[in-house]
Amino acid sequence: IRHLAEEIQAEIMDQEEVPLHSCCNDPSWLFHINQDTIVDVERVANITNEALFVSQQQMHVGHQTFSMEPSVVRDLHCSCVDDKLSLNWEHPWNLDYMENDGVQYRLGIQNRKTKEYNVFIVSVNSYKIEKDIDCNYSFDVWVNAEVNGIHGALKYIEC
Fold first, then answer.
1. What structural domains and CATH numbers belong to the chain?
2. Which end of the chain has a smaller Cβ tally under 10 Å, C or N?
3. Is the pTM of the predicted complex or chain greater than 0.70?
């Protein structure tokens, strides 16, 4: 409340009850909401130090591993010619930084007219679908990468 005029500060500090207010931006309410908060600084410091100590000990036990999620595929393009839907994309940018035994891509294709939905799992970054494709209709396409069982974010495009 230091930004308020001194007389308003004094009035707020002398209040025993918070007056009715319309919302949470009332200076009186903001001042009094934390008035009865008591912090045991020594206890908070001890808990923090214990947590830091435990986490440091865990870092030195064995080989530390973590999993990284593959990022979204890049430059997803599609075209539909002669009732063949062609998709191509670039691998996720962070794939080169991940330990992996290979990458798989999950393709979800939905015909906007018939609502028919198909899923394909491929290990290449381009794919051509010929079955049940009619280029007179639009398609919703989702692609994501999977590395070591971890799925990356979906990339969407309309064809």
1. 6-59 (no CATH), 74-158 (2.60.40.10)
2. N
3. no
